Amino acid sequence: MRLLPRRRTGPPRPTPETTMRITTALPGLALVAVAALGAGPAHAAPAGPACGDTLTVDTVLTADLTCADGVGLRLGPGVTLDLDGHVLRGGSLRQTGVVVPAGGDVTITDGVITFWGAAVADHVYDGAPDVAAPGPLGGTVHLDRVVVRDGIYGVRTVAHEDGSATTVDVDRSTFSLVNAPLWIDGGALVLHRSTLRDNSSAVVLRGGRATITRSVLRSNDGAVNVSEGGSAVVRSTAFLGNAAAVETWSGGSADVRRSEIRDSTTAVRLNAGSGSTVVTDVSITGGSRGIQAEGGTLVVERVHLADHTDESVVLFAPPAGQAASARIVGSTFHDGGDGVVSAWGAGLSLGGSTATANAGWGVHAPGAVDLGGNAAGGNGLEPQCVGVVCAAAP
């Protein structure tokens, strides 16, 4: 069994002091409200609102806009901000780009938001620690075809003290070079057909719920991090080259199906005190570890784990007094450092699975519950299986 990596005490917290990639400032020009486009002669378009203004009608950005300090723009309920391919740029990492209303749906579409402490938020973020957003909350923020880059937070929401929260709906958007592109503290996130790459913690869900579909999370330090009783559902999504693909803490749960995880330091990690994590019909290949659990409830069904330098699945003894259980069925562990290594005793049930061509153990799970139908062969250590009976496998 490999040594347990250094334990962390919780999900990473971005800070304004984090070094970011900074590009050249773009010139700030005007916004034009859609409702006012028809006013006046064609050659005399009305002056657009300035940085810090509140938009109360649908608005189109007609040129790049740079805000040297303070809030970029505030949206009133029901407003659509169409960036029209232009850039909304901040002047420091202690500013908020777009502040959305407590209630009422808003939409931001088709452009770039860059170099803000928080690109989009339901309260003014100025670098201070977490604070409750003014509320009560209840609106939905829609992002469609938006690029967010170079900042601390991409979309940042914080639940009101009464438990109400903002819903975030992201489609066909890209987040890069941001510490925490999607920081959802309470509330809900829907992420669809989007790309998150080269960030620190891509999706941080502290309570609330997230649904992630048909997206790509690439080269992030952490791709999906769930804690504080939050729950994430992942479908048809690719995790490529992230340090950790899906990680749970303090009651956080995840359900990952029909997805691919490739070249992670640890693909799926359950820390002590995690809730329930289900991994079904998933390919987990390359990198160091496939699945690592120190507690919680783990279900692994029809998962292919291969080409790991360490274990395909490793279950470390949970802290004293904490229960842990795992059920692994219909899965394969191939060409890794070890196949399955467990210190959970009867907390692990293993059946219908095959371990082949691993450098060390095929299965080493003393005291595990044998569900039958296991096979092993070509692994470096004998016996091929400890704790369960394995038929010979080529």
From TrEMBL:
Signal sequence, renumbered to the chain: 1-44
Cited InterPro entries: PbH1, Pectin_lyas_fold, Pectin_lyase_fold/virulence
Keyword Chloroplast listed: no
Stretches that traverse the bilayer: none
Entry annotated with the keyword Iron-sulfur: no
Keywords for this protein: Signal
Protein name: Right handed beta helix domain-containing protein
